[in-house]
Amino acid sequence: MRIPNSPDISGTLIRVQGLLKLFFLLLLPVFAVIIPSSSLFAQKDIRVSGRIVSETGLPVAKASVTIKGLSTGVTSNDNGDYEITAPSNGTLIFSYVGFTSAQIQIDNRTSIDVSLSSTPNSLSQVIVVGYGSLKRSDVTGAIASVGESTLKEVPTANFVTELKGRLAGVDIVSNNSNPGATGQIRIRGNRSLSPEAVPYNAALSAASNDQLNAPLIVLDGIPYGGSINDINPDDIASLDILKDASATAIYGSRGSGGVILVTTKRGNKSGKSVTSYNGYYGISNVTGEYKVFNGPEYAALKTEAAAGNTINPGMSAYGLTTAEQAGLANGVSTDWQKQIYQQGQVTNQNLSISGGNDRTQYSFGGSFYKEIGVIPGQDFTRYALRVTLDHQINSHLMVGINMMNSLAFTNNGGNPVGGLIRMSPLVSPYNADGTINSLPEAGAIDGATVNPLSIKYNSAAILNNDRRLRTFNSLYGQWNIIAGLKYRLNVGLDYSQDQAGTYMGPNTFYNSSTSLASASESVSNSEAYTYTIENVLTYDKTFAEKNRISFTGLFSVQKDHNQGSGIFGTGIPADYIQNYNLSLAGSVNASTVNTNPWTFAERGLISYMARLNYAYDNRFLFTATVRTDGSSVLSPGNQYFTYPAFAVGWNIANEKFMNNINTVSTLKLRGGWGITSNQGISPYATLGALSTNAYNFGPGTAGQNIGYLVTSLANKNLKWQSTAETDIGLDFGILKNRLTGTFDIYFQNTDNILLQESLPASNGAGSTIVNAGKTKGHGFEISLSSINIQSASGFTWSTDVNFSEDRDEIVQLQNPTLKQDIGNGWFVGQPITVIYDVKKIGIWQQKDQAAAASFGQFPGQIRVQDQNGDGKINASDAVILGNYQPKWIGGMTNRVYYKNFDFSIVMYARMGQMVDVPYLTTDGSAQGFDFFNNSRNNQIKTNYWTTSNPTNGFPRPDASADKFVYSSTLGYQDGSFVKVRSINLGYSLPSKMLNKAGISSLRVYITALNPFMIYAPLVKDGLGLDPEGNGYGGAVASTATAVATAPGRQITVNLNTPPTRQFNIGVNLKF
Amino acid sequence: MRLNIHKFLKLANRKRNNTNKISFIIAVAFFLTVTGCQKLLVESPKSQITPAFFSTPGGILGGIAGIYSDMRNLWGTEGFTNITTAGTDEVLAGGSASGVYWWTYTNIVASDNATTALWNIAYQDINTANGVLQFGATANLPDSTKAQYLAQAKFLRAFYYFYLVQTFGDVPLHTTFITDATTSDSRQPIKDIYAQIITDLTEASKELPAKPTAPFLGKPATQAAALYFLAKVYLTRGWSSADSTGDFAQAAAITSNLISNASAYGLGLWPDFASANAPGNEYGLETIFVIDREADLKYGERTTGSRASGPKENGTNFFFRPNYPTITANYPAAGGAAIMTRDIPNGRPFIRIRPNTPYVLNQAFTDLVNDTRYAKTFQTVWIANTPAVTTPRGSLTVGVDTGLWAAPVEVSAARVSSFKGIIFTPNGTNGANTYTTVMYPSMKKYDDPNRADVNDASTRPFIFARFADVYLIAAEAYFKMGDNTSAAAMLNVVRQRAAFGTTNPGGNAAAVIAQTITPAQVTLDFILDERSRELFGECQRWWDLVRTQSLNERLMQWNPTEAYTHYATSSPANAYSLRPIPQTQINLVTSGPVFPQNPGY
């Protein structure tokens, strides 16, 4: 493309060079000295004019512009333009409810444009509603919006974690704690039953694990799949979250999980270019260590486990080794976690330039984000480049493009935490002469365990990385055909490619083999592309002054393609080769028994949509939407489904009878109904697939065969599931909008749920996918924003509060007569994910020895309730003990501004839910904590039963038990928490100090991220570090019922990278 | 494309009437979107095998291979080894035993992984076998190939039903390929199950080749394997409540046929008992059937490295090992260096299973002179492999001195005091140490010296059926028929072979005579003891005791503390001679009658 030789752009380029120089100069002494320049100008009154816009570049009408210290003021017009007469060295205060007010010194300028940052739930914002935008006052659906400044209050690698606890009805829980972790998002709870996505394609189902309930993300109008980490949060201007079905129905088959509309920053028409630099640097540390037994306590555990041996009393295979005995005598008590956890670092640098004139607007920028984790070997780095261009060709035609490119490197290292917990505290990491004790547990049953410090000293032998390239491009052409009638073509092109690799060499904590012949290495690649083509026709017209209509029509197609490949090797000549040359490997395979990276999946979607908005006299609002989607993943004949939605709104505040009620500035009642669905079913599910394995008939290659088994049955009649939702909401603003808020109440009914049904094994195949079942949900949400204090001296204190609760319930299972499906863990009338198990009522005490014996148990073992009193414990004694659904979630943000200081504190609460903590349980197999309470290895410190400590907490250690009955009951813990997400303190340097340097604003700030928890029983009890969870699965099945106590979808608290507390120092700079 | 945009812009700029513009734009839009629309909703998978493949010749062969491969999820795994071995007279729980309730019969849970795995895998494989039979019948294959494929499927279906019926009693019976999901099922009487097994095996025994034939190489199902199982099925049914007249005679006749035609099947007994389980002999003379494994990571379906953890790996080389690396020089006092280091020849100590010493040494293996099988079944000495180890009695030379000795008999005081290493004996008299739950003779039939890493699982095929068992089946059948003479003759073949060896100074002839028994000596207990001597640890014992209805008596006599105490409390009596129906099966039958649990659970 030829760049037009416009003086505007070349001028910008020259200025950019100068600014870059300045930028680098500033990096060195940024907090040092910027000499304040005293005003040389005499005071005189001048005319100042300009435009007030929001951070999305849209005009802010009716904003107030006042002169500091004076009572005079004006308001901006509908285009955001203002004009005021003010002293040439005075200060202008720009304010509007819902936006953070700004103070700007005039400094003899006659033109001052200002961009105001919005606070959530502003009633006058123009918000994006999907295939268009509306003023909030015209909106009929339940839509929450978040601006850039709100996101920045919790600076992290991606916007999902930044949103945690910020919006009513948007529940985000961490599912990982490694650098670059994202989170699980639920908007208004769960609707689908399936524990996991459809399993036909293992690689895909891992990625789309919670796709059935997760929201759709739309970036600048184009559906966005894949990693959220590819979006640089600094590029985001605003987020609009469509919550109810009347709003999400325009996304039909993908809307039932809610829709998050991401709007990125673009250029503006100011005629000037603005350069922004945002950067911060931070350090992070674990918030704590998992509490384990120390040396003497570990020795005591071993002694007690031998005494508690129920098969051979007094015996143990896990006595102290010679080295441990010496360690005990010498007071050795090694804290292995401390040996490994390190201080993490995070740095984020963003530079962007934007500007433009009436015809061309541009923005471009680059960013660098790097996070070094608290576990050696874990880090995340992202480089991102972005360009947007909008150009008005003539009065009829406009074109634009947004190109986002990112290159992200993730090093996962390994997860040593579970292993560190297991290490004996009675041995030292170092020998007496100071050298590394390479096999610290020598002589014990796990004597082959290599010193955990090998993670550091043998780091060349450990590799687990992923390099991801993503290029997300959207371009549009818009043709204003006649007044009010527009045609817009949106084209989205999205491509991502991952190259991942692993290497696990010998003699490390992760691979204790001693021979390079046992090294394992892999290289895998995957690519995904999506194209979207949308044709949108809109027509806006006002009839007879009071009747406004807006019509939107859409025809679109979308195709997704995913493909993956990989190679695995065993044995390598030297560690440094890692996975760079698998031709040197001892053997090479295209898959392993655990992983098959070879995948291929495509899906297509064809959609038609029409929407009509009608507003009468700014009082009555009506929206009707209908969308038809056809998807390739469903059975022929069932591929199309139509989604209708209707909504009405009544701006009560605009009624004549409200004219005299001055306290009420805004009052709107909304109601809507709609149908949506989700696409959470993998391609080819209707075709079925055979499981594959391999076998050798005899030695040699002649007998080698690939094998096939029928393990799941295809369903040729799969159709869409659908969710109908009704929402009633009230938006209000009182006391000149100093207190604004939104209430919503909603009811959802989901039908024909696509679910993976487990089948009785005797019928040959373990599972199938069916359209069965119904769920319902209801909930309510409150969001309040209040300006508590706003004094003339410039002191402002505002508070945002959100509160929501959501209840889901199973209405019907596979057939109407079925009331419970224990095997799948579903119960009619109960929440979707419940804990169904026998009930622990304590520990058998010595006085109950005879009673315990009648159950085949001993004092010190877990005592459970014999619900039916038949003298034995079995599946019929299981009851529903609780569920994983929080009673309520809430968040609160307090902001204080005084003079040039700003301060904010963000809090987040999730209350009343249970969590499953698998490391407090064991099943003697793959789940839980192997050899828990058995004394073979160290473990989380528990208050266990002994004859002299007759607790009802944890059972007596038993050296004979690889698992113990009812151990699953120990994992259910109170998951409630109230935590402080972030505390920020910022200082904006006075602009008169900055003007000389050509700087328009400069703010420095410090942030504390996750500084502390206010309330968390799990942490208080010493059983975990954060009840929020950090991974999926790991839960043992109930001893009595064989039902997994936390299905695969459920986030659990595992022994993963500990949560961190982070302190940042940063700067926001604008030229 | 470029042309289109120019045209587009040009057209857009023209001051034509709006209708034309609209039609043009819509035309362009539809050009861009409609092309390919038809194909967009059609699915064409490329990376997965769809069920249609199953009806092709390659799919049918793959189905058979898939079933064999699935057996790796059972034979050789820890859970399955437990349910075949634990809770019997032969063994006791090792210091790190897993699945404790199988050892003690205490609080047995219906949700156990091992029994659930047997159930689920058996039915999954039976359904695939039914699919092979359905599609194979009409497949475009040469008749001989087709017959062989179908016979394999019949064999495999019978194989799984045999282990289901022995383990769970009445079980669902499906003989057609199930492709539609259902959530109901019911149990059929064992009589019907046995009838189906016998039909399948009888047909397979006629249709399978006499010896392994490509593509089924190694030791898969052959005519001999089918006959072996058929004999065992008749024997087992003969003992059961579903017995039919002539069951034992059938078993005897089939085994006689196998023995007399052994060479035609390429089978027989090795001269030396030790050869039968020796590494390298897995496909040898005596092996009737193996669950195959190999070093190749793909076809062997295994991993290598520290925590060999593939679900289908053969871990039998771990389970019977004592914790030899933890015995230190000053044992039993604390202190001193560990005498042994974990190495490949001595193996990875899992400490799961230990011999039940009173039974093994006082009942089964009483003759350590003429019967060489104790020495060929157990590792009792560990040669020092760690430098610079000094016990209170002297310094050990690597590769020369015996570091640890788990002697089968008591040792004299003089010997104890002069022995540089550590001695363990059954009773620990004369200053020796008593066997413990973690240090005891190590069953060595599954040793695998050819592994890359000491922690790797075994790459040896799991020897499932040996020709020696044919004689033992025959002996049991003749015994039940009242023909003790023939029974003794059969037992004597196995017993006399056991005399082979260099350890009996009087020469084999004398030992052979000593090993020969008379018909009067044949009792059920003798047969069961003989099975221990011959088949110790070969993952059959629990079913042997269940078949012969001896579990109660043998546990009472030989495993009174660990197992019998709770076994005896079951209600009804002997309820624990059937395993519980997996809880998931009961839970998931959600339509029709409730799926019943076995009594006592």
Structure description:
The complex is a heterodimer of chains A (1071) and B (601). In chain A, the strands form 13 sheets. Chain A has a 22-stranded antiparallel β-barrel. Chain A is 8% helix and 43% strand. Residues 1-42 and 195-209 of chain A have low confidence and may be disordered. The radius of gyration of chain A is 31 Å and the shape is globular. Chain A contains 13 helices and 54 strands. Chain A is mainly beta and 1071 residues long. Mean pLDDT of chain B is 91; it is low at 1-5. Chain B has a four-stranded mixed beta sheet with strand order 5-8-9-10, with no helix packed on it. A two-stranded antiparallel sheet of chain B has the order 1-3. In chain B, strands 2-12 form a two-stranded antiparallel sheet. Chain B is globular, with a radius of gyration of 30 Å. Chain B is α+β, with helices and mostly antiparallel strands and 601 residues long. In chain B, helix 7 runs antiparallel to helix 8 (143-168). The interface between A and B is large, with 145 and 144 residues.
Summary, kept brief:
The complex is a heterodimer of chains A (1071) and B (601). With 1071 residues, chain A is mainly β. In chain A, 8% of the residues lie in helices and 43% in strands.
What is the strand and helix layout of this fold?
The complex is a heterodimer of chains A (1071) and B (601).
Chain A: H1 7-27, E1 45-54, E2 64-67, E3 73-75, E4 81-87, E5 91-95, E6 102-105, E7 114-116, E8 126-128, E9 133-135, E10 143-147, H2 148-152, H3 159-163, E11 170-173, E12 184-187, H4 202-207, E13 216-219, E14 222-224, E15 236-242, H5 245-248, E16 259-264, E17 274-286, H6 295-307, H7 322-329, H8 336-340, E18 344-356, E19 360-372, E20 379-392, E21 397-411, H9 417-422, H10 454-457, E22 462-482, E23 485-504, E24 520-543, E25 547-570, E26 587-589, E27 599-616, E28 620-631, E29 640-651, E30 664-676, E31 691-696, E32 704-709, E33 712-713, E34 722-734, E35 739-751, E36 754-758, E37 767-771, E38 774-790, E39 796-812, E40 820-821, E41 826-827, E42 834-837, E43 840-843, H11 849-854, E44 862-864, E45 879-883, E46 888-898, E47 901-911, E48 914-916, E49 972-974, E50 977-988, H12 991-994, E51 1001-1015, H13 1017-1020, E52 1031-1032, E53 1051-1052, E54 1060-1070
Parallel strand pairs in A: 1-7, 13-16, 33-37
Antiparallel strand pairs in A: 1-4, 2-3, 2-5, 5-6, 8-9, 10-15, 11-12, 13-14, 15-16, 17-18, 17-54, 18-19, 19-20, 20-21, 21-22, 22-23, 23-24, 24-25, 25-26, 25-27, 27-28, 28-29, 29-30, 30-34, 31-32, 34-35, 35-38, 36-37, 38-39, 39-46, 40-41, 42-45, 43-44, 46-47, 47-50, 48-49, 50-51, 51-54, 52-53
Chain B: H1 2-13, H2 18-34, H3 37-40, H4 57-71, H5 78-85, E1 91-93, H6 100-104, H7 113-138, H8 143-168, H9 190-207, H10 223-239, H11 247-260, H12 262-265, H13 273-276, E2 287-291, H14 316-319, E3 353-355, H15 357-364, H16 373-377, E4 378-379, E5 381-383, E6 389-391, E7 394-396, E8 402-406, H17 413-418, E9 422-425, E10 433-434, E11 442-443, E12 462-466, H18 467-481, H19 484-497, H20 508-515, H21 524-535, H22 541-547, H23 551-558, H24 560-567, H25 583-588
Parallel strand pairs in B: 8-9, 9-10
Antiparallel strand pairs in B: 1-3, 2-12, 4-11, 5-8, 6-7
Helix pairs in contact in B: 4-7, 4-8, 5-7, 7-8, 8-9, 8-10, 9-10, 10-11, 10-18, 11-18, 18-19, 18-21, 19-20, 23-24
